[in-house]
Amino acid sequence: QVQLVESGGGLVQPGGSLRLSCAASGFTLEHYTVGWVRQAPGKEREGVSCISNKDNSTVYADSVKGRFTISRDKSKNTVYLQMNSLKPEDTAVYYCAADYIMSHQAMCAPPPIGMDHWGKGTLVTVSS
């Protein structure tokens, strides 16, 4: 069964950190461009960070540059999103998405649609 499963969300205070995981089953994630997309209440989905399947090049939304880092662990068939210096405006459901053809720049460009596979999301709440 082909699926993506996110984990690692939760409640964290402003300034804190979380690491989200996106684990794939049924396919080899390193062959796919992978992105993290978030949706805050009442807002449209936003591409946060994406990583290329060709050379692991990365892109980040301006709002998270310098605070978030995307990475792969091929041995675990997993992509991570390390989130530091979290702010209340980072509160959202974070989704993992993967596509075999799409470039990482296209995946993170608005609107973030058309990817082959999506996870069900994990909620991140940043609040004191």
Could you explain the architecture of this structure?
- There is one protein chain.
- This protein is mainly beta and 128 residues long.
- It has one helix at residues 104-108, and strands at residues 3-7, 10-12, 18-25, 33-39, 46-51, 58-60, 68-73, 78-83, 92-99, 117-118, 122-126.
- Strands 2, 4, 5, 6, 9, 10 and 11 form a 7-stranded mixed sheet that branches.
- The longest helix is centred in the C-terminal third of the chain and has 5 residues, at 104-108.
- The radius of gyration is 13 Å and the shape is globular.
- The mean pLDDT is 96.
Q: What is the helical fraction, as a range of percent? A: under 10%
Major sheet, described briefly? 7 strands, mixed
Question: How many strands?
Answer: 11
Radius of gyration: 13 Å
Structural class: mainly beta
Order of helices and strands: EEEEEEEEEHEE
> Which term fits the overall shape?
globular
The rounded distance between the terminal residues' Cα atoms is: 39 Å
User: What proportion of the residues form beta strands (DSSP E)?
Assistant: over 45%
Helices, by number, come to: 1
Let me know the average pLDDT: 96
Can you tell me the residue ranges where pLDDT is under 50 for at least 5 consecutive residues? Answer: none
